[in-house]
Design goal:
- By secondary structure, the protein is mainly β.
- It is about 15% helix and about 35% strand.
- The strands form 2 sheets. The chain has a 16-stranded antiparallel β-barrel with strand order 1-2-3-5-6-7-8-11-12-13-14-15-16-17-18-19. The protein has a two-stranded antiparallel ribbon with strand order 9-10.
- Strand 7 and strand 8 form a beta hairpin.
- The longest helix is centred in the N-terminal third of the chain and has 22 residues.
- It starts with a helix and ends with a strand.
């Protein structure tokens, strides 16, 4: 289906969900089925949903339409330990309930089979659905479609370095995501439990999660608009007998820091901050999270860098053009794929209203690699009251030994295949070079730092308004492609029609202070010609 067809089909589908669901259920319904309200009597949920898959699926959307939560099962076990810090938020209207921290299933507050999924409700009366429930396995996901109207005109890519809406004046399939998972029970304290997640994503957003070596040909060789990826492929083991609980995660997982996330439902707004756009996204390795006390969590992990794969560690490829930068006949395919470590501390106080989370992620010698970022920073969350809360993040990231784009020796080496990311190896979306201060230097340290905040007002149980101010300094232009300082101000509204359907309109103003950074396309050789962007954007998320 073309992007233009997506633009017509998705709003129509959204409009038909309540119409179809209200139309299917009453036809031929028994009197007890028509009068059943699972919000008042949970035991009649199965009667309300009906018999066949299609009817049950649509009736579940009907059931939750206009509600701020799923119907509550009074026989369900407690969802958190009694002495744990209070859960600060709710979904809807927020993208999370616990203040975010990565690399683990949340400790002390997670029960299996806790995802509110129309698909799982639809198959719960089948043998497959019962087997999955008995084994605490769930399948669910969402469809995310969005569009924007922009002051930029270059297509594709003219909105960059703005992400997740990088092509101006278009409607796009952002992400179609599916999860198959089992989450460990971290509330109980009497037995070791285990879990796993297999995730798949398809759409424009694959270009931000791509790990070099894992189906990366789509982005780095073909520059496809839509592609697929597997951002999370991991297993977990929870050991409650160690302090207040120890979680071990191994595989590919989302990197530990950040307010924002790759997956649409985990974000306040449709677009992302500049800081997140050029941030660490995923790691491959092992991550340990220890709850020393209910308020203090420690994390440590070993991985192979950022957006890198195990099989690239130590792998070499021929060097067709030895040069002063890479003099050997071979060089590492990805110099950033190497043993690295992660460490974080999370401390919560004021009964869960405040949390600080300093981290360092993907730490090694920082040599120029696909996305070998050395991340140092922290997030802080504060709940003022039931209406207002603040999410804040600041970081400093860098790489070392980044080739100098101002040096003619480097320019010749890159053009003739003499670096691991020359066009001969990476035709599209290769890591940027650095705009080094000294034109005679072959390489330099490339650094970026910034700060972003989300100031949030919960207008109703189904509505949240977010204001996002941000400052970002790409000191050598290695992250965005332009040596500049950036300002961003965004205002977004998250409106939930139900716990399954969310709409997120917003307006943004971006400014590059030192140079023109917008309305270009580096892959097509089009230089940016604007130093600002005004963007009106919106998306819809439909869970299944």
């Amino acid at each position: 289906m073309s992007l233009s067809n997506w633009g017509r089909a998705v709003p129509l589908a959204l409009a038909l969900v309540p119409v179809l669901s209200f139309g299917l259920s009453p036809m031929g319904a028994r009197a007890d089925e028509a009068s059943c309200d699972p919000y008042k009597d949970y035991k009649c949920l199965d009667t309300y949903l009906g018999e066949d898959f299609g009817t049950r699926f649509l009736n579940y959307y009907k059931l939750e339409w206009g509600q701020a939560a799923a119907p509550s099962d009074p026989s369900a076990p407690p969802s958190r330990r009694d002495y744990w810090p209070a859960t600060p938020q709710s979904t809807p209207p927020m993208p999370f309930t616990e203040w975010p921290y990565g690399g683990t299933t949340s400790l002390g507050v997670n029960r299996p089979n806790s995802v509110d999924s129309p698909f799982m409700a639809a198959i719960s009366n089948t043998s497959l659905g019962q087997w999955m429930q008995d084994n605490n396995i769930q399948f669910y996901g969402w469809l995310n479609v969005g569009g924007n109207v922009s002051s930029n005109t270059v297509r594709p890519g003219g909105n960059a370095p703005i992400a997740y809406a990088y092509t101006p004046n278009t409607v796009q399939l952002d992400q179609l995501v599916a999860y198959l998972e089992r989450t460990p029970d971290t509330v109980q304290t009497d037995h070791i439990d285990w879990g796993f997640r297999v995730s798949a994503i398809y759409g424009e957003n694959y270009r931000y999660t791509t790990s070099y070596g894992l189906a990366s040909y789509q982005l780095l060789k073909d520059n496809k608009v839509n592609g697929y990826d597997f951002p999370m492929l991991y297993a977990e083991m929870f050991v409650p007998q160690v302090a207040e609980g120890l979680m071990l995660r191994v595989g590919r997982y989302i990197s530990v820091p950040d307010i924002e996330a790759q997956l649409a439902p985990n974000n306040y707004m449709y677009t992302h901050s500049m800081m997140y756009t050029f941030d660490n996204y995923t790691n491959e390795g092992i991550q340990a999270t220890l709850a020393v006390t209910p308020n203090l969590l420690l994390q440590a992990g070993f991985n192979v860098g950022t957006e890198s794969t195990f099989w690239h560690v130590g792998e070499k490829v021929p060097n067709p053009f030895p040069n002063p930068l890479y003099p050997g006949r071979n060089f590492l395919k990805d110099p950033g794929a190497k043993p690295s470590f992660t460490a974080c501390i999370r401390y919560t106080w004021n009964n869960g209203d405040d949390t600080v989370y300093p981290c360092m992620d993907g730490i090694n010698n920082g040599s120029w690699g696909y996305n070998n970022l050395q991340w140092y920073g922290f997030t802080y969350y504060h709940k003022f009251n039931d209406k207002w809360h603040l999410s804040f993040e600041t970081y400093d990231i860098h790489q070392t030994g980044v080739p100098n784009l101002n040096n003619p020796i480097v320019q010749t080496a890159v053009a003739n295949g003499g670096t691991p990311f020359s066009p001969q190896y990476t035709p599209f979306n290769a890591p940027n070079l650095a705009n080094c201060h000294n034109p005679n230097a072959l390489t330099c340290r490339a650094e970026a730092y910034g700060a972003v905040a989300y100031i949030n007002y919960q207008a109703s149980p189904l509505d949240n308004i977010s204001f996002r101010p941000e400052f970002y300094d790409d000191a050598q232009g290695q992250r965005t492609g332009t040596k500049a300082r950036y300002l961003n101000f965004g205002l977004g509204w998250q409106h939930w029609l139900s716990p399954q359907i969310e709409l997120r309109p917003e307006i943004d103003w971006d400014r590059s202070i030192d140079a023109k950074a917008f309305n270009g396309n580096s892959n097509a050789g089009i230089a940016p010609d604007k130093n600002y962007t005004v963007l009106v954007a919106a998306d819809a998320i439909v869970h299944f």
